[in-house]
Fold this protein.
Amino acid sequence: MKGGTVQINWHDTQPVLTLDFHPESGFLATGGNDHDIKIWVVESDSSEKNLPTASYQNSLSYHSSAVNALRFSPSGEYLASGADGGELILWKLQPNNEGQSAWKVHKSLQFHRKDVLDLEWSPDGSYLITGSVDNSCIIWDINKVSVHQILDAHLHYVQGVAWDPLGQFVSSISSDRTCRIYANKPLNKSKGNFDKLHFVCQHTLTKCEPPITDDSNKGAKTHLFHDETLPSFFRRLAWSPDGSFLLVPAGVCKYPSTTETINTAYILSRRDLSRPSIQLPGASKAIVAIRFCPVIFTLLNNSNSETLFKLPYRVIFAVATLNSLYIYDTQSLAPIAIFAGLHYAAITDISWSMDAKYLAVSSRDGYCTIIEFENDELGQAYKISEEKKTVQESEAISKVEVEKEDKMEIDNINGDNLVRENSNDKNKNNEIKEEILTQPKSTVTVRDNNNKPAKKRIMPIAIN
């Protein structure tokens, strides 16, 4: 494992707000406050620095405002980018006059009234879900290039959206302190005519009873998530690649016996999405982004390792706080690696390359960090046969072992108590102050997968 902050002119020293790896070519696309999308080639470096390098290829210029989110479609044919002011652009890879392929504007999707903060593709690439400052999620039909469905239950900014890789659910998280899970329930429009994609809100997570310790009594229900004062406009949640669980950031937990507030992320079991199953504590700062490694790995030969999961394989995921990066796997409690002090300003997004060789992180300080993994450093890839895949798609979560949890409260939130800000003022009020200085010295802690950690830090716990 090697890597660090790549000190190049990413977006004219302006904040880098989002990034994503192309699933086929491995190109890295970044979007920032300079209104541009830039394409980079990421390669290993054989020089003395021995750090991954990023070489500029070209820019995609069309947006008239900051680019907050971009994602390649599963096939790599399209690139969707969302920006301030409700701009949503669909790019398509098309051949040019020189016989090469280039990204060109395919369609402009117009319906959001305010900033688009996050977006995600459906597993087959036929649909797209977006979340916006206008408090709504929109599901777009890419083939018809039109609005398919509007989900407008949130009462404040929608800062994160995710699509279940098995296609049954979509999820969203908002600064109204709720996470909503929508289930696909086909709608019978007319006799013999079904709308195969129609989402209905199935669960709303907002409050729960705090964990009970030996020296505490049962306390009042507390909010699961940070409110709108969280100093980030992104709460990027994610599903595991096998669809077995959902990981939700921006969590907050208070114990009855103390006034201390713990920043956390919550793991939701597919078997019961109505309440968190596992609490994943963070560091001193709030967790703002989560991204799963697209490659699933075989189990390590470490029978002594403690785990809250009982899976026949290992799933690896990255968790970003405002100032640090943690890498976990499902076979152990402690992080595989911890990266701290990488940036002067808040982290905004994470992305893995499809071969799991690179992990990229963007920040508001105008720089990106790229981490490179050696061959088989994360383990051997686990191959799921087509016969087993069908079974796992219907019973994926049955292999996740969690303890019994307290009953979750579903609240009706009073929208009058929420602070609504003009999106044009967000950079003045909420933007983290940027100081483009010499990059901070990073601190990296790596745990050997073959040995049990001597000390347990930031352990995930089952909620009792």
